[in-house]
């Protein structure tokens, strides 16, 4: 669906503005995330990404971000608040203050890299229990397999498992 939508949108923009080529640098990527554990961290990741990419000096300067809404700087009719954002306070002002406080400390580099890699690979962002639940719902493996070919069994292991012995 996203691929089809993307193609049609690119055709529309290219036709309307008499241009050619792609609009985006890469493929559409998404990951299932454990909201309870990672939602607000991912909000923060998304809000800070334009700054880390050198597009702006601070997150409030990026025009296509929800940062200004979440921090109480601008209203928006486009954003539906998630329950975890709503839990930050009783009023939008309280929630905006709490959300702003999340940006007062540096992002843990290892966590930033983990989120980026998970999204890049399209993996589940969550703990083992959450990942197992997603595998059950999806009815297939979502965790990556170990790299490389599985190791061969020793001759002794093969013969004992098949019920034969070697002399």
Automatic annotation (TrEMBL):
Biological-process GO terms, alphabetical: DNA transposition
Superkingdom of origin: Bacteria
InterPro entries named in the record: Transposase_17_sf (IPR036515)
A single MF term (Gene Ontology): transposase activity
Biased amino acid composition, Basic residues: 141-152
Protein name: Transposase
Region (Disordered): 141-167
């Amino acid at each position: 669906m996203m691929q089809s939508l993307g193609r049609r949108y690119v055709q529309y923009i290219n036709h309307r503005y008499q241009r050619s080529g792609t609009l985006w640098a890469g493929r559409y990527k998404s990951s299932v995330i454990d909201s309870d554990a990672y939602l607000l961290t991912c909000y923060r990741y998304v809000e800070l990404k334009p700054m880390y990419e050198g597009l702006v000096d601070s997150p409030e300067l990026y025009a296509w971000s929800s940062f200004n809404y979440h921090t109480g700087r601008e209203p928006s009719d486009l954003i539906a608040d998630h329950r975890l954002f709503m839990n930050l306070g009783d009023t939008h002002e309280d929630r905006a203050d709490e959300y702003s406080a999340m940006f007062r400390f540096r992002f843990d580099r290892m966590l930033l890299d983990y989120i980026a890699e998970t999204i890049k690979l399209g993996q589940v962002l969550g703990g083992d229990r959450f990942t197992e639940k997603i595998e059950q719902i999806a009815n297939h493996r979502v965790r990556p397999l170990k790299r490389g070919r599985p190791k061969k069994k020793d001759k002794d292991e093969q013969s004992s498992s098949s019920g034969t012995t070697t002399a």
